[in-house]
Structures are given as C-alpha cells and as structure tokens.
Amino acid sequence: MNKQIIEYLSKYTVITKELEDIIAESTFFKNYKKGTILLSEGNLSNECFFVLKGCIRSYFFKEGEEKTIEFYTEEQVVTPANYGKSTPSKYYLECIEDTVLNVANPTIENEMFQKYPQLESLSRIIAEEIITKHQTSFTEFKTSNPEERYLHLLKTRPNIIQRAPQYQIASYLGIKPESLSRIKKRLMNKMNSSI
Amino acid sequence: MNKQIIEYLSKYTVITKELEDIIAESTFFKNYKKGTILLSEGNLSNECFFVLKGCIRSYFFKEGEEKTIEFYTEEQVVTPANYGKSTPSKYYLECIEDTVLNVANPTIENEMFQKYPQLESLSRIIAEEIITKHQTSFTEFKTSNPEERYLHLLKTRPNIIQRAPQYQIASYLGIKPESLSRIKKRLMNKMNSSI
Fold it and tell me: With an 8 Å Cβ cutoff, are B138 and A136 in contact?
C-alpha cells in the first residue's frame, strides 16, 4: 500500500529512503464498506484521505435534491473544505464502492512536516497542481454545453461513468438525469449512423 | 505596498519582523497600464503576481469567441497554470484597469523559501485555502441557473460587476451577453414591482 503513495509522490520529487520510512511509520490504512459515510453535512472534519482503491463521492442537498460535487478515485487526495477547522461541513463524503484509504489528521501531518520539512514543500507543490487542475476543469465546464461536458468526462475519466450511478453522473455534469439519457441516446444514434 | 502583503499574510499566521524584512528585500512592485497583456496564449510564464491595486482578467478563445475565466482583484494571488513550467500558456492575462502588482518568479520564491521555511508552510496553507474556495465556487456555479449565478456574483463580488464590461461578465457567468441583459431587466422589473 505504501508503494502506491511513494509512486504518487515520486511524480513530484525524489523520495529518499528517510522519507519513505517516515511515511511507513506515520500513515495508516483503513478499509471502508460501500455506502460508508466518511463525513456528514454539519459535522467537523479531522481526517483527510488518499484513495488507494475505490471511489469517494462528495455531495450535498439543494432544495431537497442531491447534488454531486466530485468523485475521487485511485491516487486522488481528498481534503474536506473544513478539515482541521472549527466550521461544520457543508457536504457529505460517501464511499460508493468498497474503498481502501490512507488516512491522516492534522496531528500526524504536523509531526511529519516537522520531521521532514521537504514533505511540506511537496504538499505545497501538490496543492498548487490541484489548483491548476481545478481551474482547468472549471473553465472546461463553464465553456461547454452538456453534451460536450459528457464527452469530456468520457475522454478524461471514463471509469467514473462505469463506476457511478447515472443520476450521480447527471448531477455531477450539472444536468437532469433525463437530459443525460437524451445525450447518450443522441450520441449512440450518431455512432450508429456513422458505421 | 509591503504593508498590504503583510496584512494579507497575517490572516494565516503570525508574521515576524524577520519575515517582514525578507519580504521587503525580495519582492518588487510594478505598475501596468490598463490593457497590458501580462501573459499570452502560447507563451511561457515565469512570473506570478499578487494584486495590490487594479484588476487582472484571464481569458482564452474558443472557436474564435473570447471566454473570460477569472477576475483577480486586490489581495488575490495570480499563479498562471504553466508558471515555472516548460509548457505554453492556454490563456491570456490582461490588466483591465491600471494595475499595481507585486511580482515574483521561481528564483525569488525558492530563495525566500530557503531563507525562511515558514514561508513555504504559509504558501501551502494559502494554496489549500485557494483549493477550498475554488471548490466552493465551482459547486455554486454547477448547481445554479444563470440568474442565481448573477445574484451570487452581485452578493459576493459586487465590485466586479462595476469594474468589468458586460460582455466579460456574461462569459464569466457562462452565458451570452443577451441573456445577461435579460436577467438584469427581469431583476430590475421584480425590484420595481416590489417597491
């Protein structure tokens, strides 16, 4: 399991044996059954996660309707917006598959940063990478119509479409389930007529 | 000018006299005229900015049409997606007002981080805050209709509406200028009929 974390971090910097040992000592893994709620709206959050296997979905309710914010799969970091703060969560985190997570909390993190300052530098670099990715996704979303959004998801994260129920995908794309069905039917017809 | 940066950083941590001096020594300010292009599509980026006064807009072209991604005003950090990398920029950065910026580059940043590791820790914390803000904005956008998006902008960043031309506001909201006009007219009518 640690190997997967080391591989992920190696994309950003050279991981020394020392850092590898610190990670092995300081992190721990947990298994969660499909359907587990990791964080509820209104609750405090003292844990952040790295997905080793499985899928986490974040969602909230707007006027009684469930709205999917994000899907996190293998090798993604999940830091709740209120992580380590005294503010309640505005959303839920749910395992939509049996999931294995590496779990950290502010105490573990601070200890690791103190033992190994290079790790804090690495965290900064990763956070900046995440900002860039978010910005790209937001721009992509804002400047696309629903069909383009679906095609983009199909191209960039095809496994999400296989792993999550249709109604979750629809709200993730900011559309109604009926619109998603129509888009899929339209694309299917296009494909068939071009064969 | 430095005072403004120190005030901004003080929101996140205690700024010692030592750090204050390092910032004063290492950073520099530049004045830009309205209309200055800070970064062009296809170019490398070796500068990041902190807005002291004025407004920067990021935009790109999609099928020949200008699409506004973001507006950055006082006390916002602007780090181009390709900052310090060997990849070309996918968008433009333009000063839409006369603007005063604090300018940094990777060399300055690394020197500052080495002299004062606490600054790197601070950068991590700020980057994580930015992630949270982006996530909130994206979710808000995805789960709102155009009128709600306009009202949200009016509530959270009313000065943007005053400072940027209508066509830029419209594309920032992911809608056509005609739709924005209609929304504004509708809201005006609602207001008038409720007086």
Answer: no
Instruction: Produce one character per residue of B103-119: b if its CB has 16 or more CB atoms within 10 Å, e if not.
Output: ebeeeebeebbeebebb
What ipTM was assigned to the predicted interfaces of this complex? 0.86
The torsion of the CA quartet A77, A81, A85, A86, rounded to 10 degrees, works out to -140
Q: Which residues contact A10 (CB under 8 A, 6 or more apart)?
A: none
Residues of B in contact with A62 (CB under 8 A): 143
Residue A104: strand pairing partners: A48
CA distance linking residue A83 with residue A110, whole number of Å: 14
Phi first, then psi: give them for residue A46, nearest 5 degrees: -120, 15
Where residue B123 falls (left for φ over 0; alpha for ψ -120 to 50; beta otherwise) is alpha
> Quick check: A128 and B84 in contact, CB under 8 A?
no
| Interface residues on B facing A, Cβ-Cβ cutoff 8 A | 60, 62, 67, 69-70, 79, 81, 91, 113, 117, 120-121, 123-124, 127-128, 130-132, 134-139, 141-143, 174
Domains observed in chain B: 2-143 (2.60.120.10)
Q: For residue A158, how far is the Cα from the chain centroid?
A: 15
pLDDT along chain A (195 residues), means of 10: 83 86 83 98 96 96 94 94 95 97 92 88 91 91 93 95 96 94 93 80
Nearest Cβ partner of A138 from B123, B128, B134? B134
Sole residue written with tokens 């703060």: A85
